[in-house]
Amino acid sequence: MPAYIDDMRKVAGLLRQSERIMVIGCSGGGKSTLSRKLSRKLDLPYFSMDKEFFWLPGWVKRPKGEERHLIGNVVAGERWLMDGTGPSTFDIRVPRTELVVWVRMPRWLCLWGICKRAFLHLGRTRPDMAPGCLERVPDREFLTYIWMFEKRFAPLVIAALDKHGPNVPVFQLKSRREVNHLLDLLGAPT
User: Fold this and answer.
1) CATH number at residue 148
2) Alpha-carbon distance 32 to 47, whole Å?
3) Would 190 be classed as within a structural domain?
4) Gene3D superfamilies from the entry (predicted)?
């Protein structure tokens, strides 16, 4: 079982001390927005997995070997905050991570987040996506992924956290109110 912690004040203290942080969660849950805010507040370099590693222009997936090489270069550094779930790279990322923040919102909120994101950025590249990846209307496959995330993918995340970092603290945020409270504790703008 991952090393869950549930004391938000303790997490705020850990965040202030940590120099290598992963922010994970289902698409649409707000992990990128939170990551940007934490990065600014904690003065940590921010890396979006989608933008930096996963996608090439035009929604072309980067070759896996190249992706892993790029991630390895970043995680070898002393200071970073990385936004993205991708359990297939937990073997590279988690052992170097000092704290995992899991944005674990209800699926209806993730679906709302995806729809809102599509509406706000439709036909343009959003800030956390690779250049040339224009936002589009979510398809059925993507919506199903979000709807089934807790059942199908959360167990993979838990297993990978347990395997690659059983002692790495994991803090779960399960509501917007909790996110805002954590940011308030850090003195970050919400």
Assistant:
1) 3.40.50.300
2) 10
3) no
4) P-loop containing nucleotide triphosphate hydrolases
Beta carbons of 185 and 9 less than 8 angstroms apart: yes
Q: Are 167 and 160 in contact (CB under 8 A)?
A: no
Query: 148: which residues sit within 8 A by CB, 6+ positions away?
Result: none
Structure tokens at 24: 């994970």
Q: Is residue 109 part of a domain?
A: yes
pLDDT digits (tens, 9 = 90+) for 2-43: 899 999 999 999 999 999 999 999 999 999 999 999 999 999
Alpha-carbon span 14 to 18, nearest angstrom:
6
Going by C-alpha positions, the residue among 16, 6, 148, 162 that lies closest to residue 95 is 162
Q: Quick one: 73 exposed, middle or buried, by C-beta within 10 A (0-12, 13-18, 19+)?
A: exposed
Q: How far apart are CA 39 and CA 74, in angstroms?
A: 15
Please report whether residue 105 resides in a domain.
yes
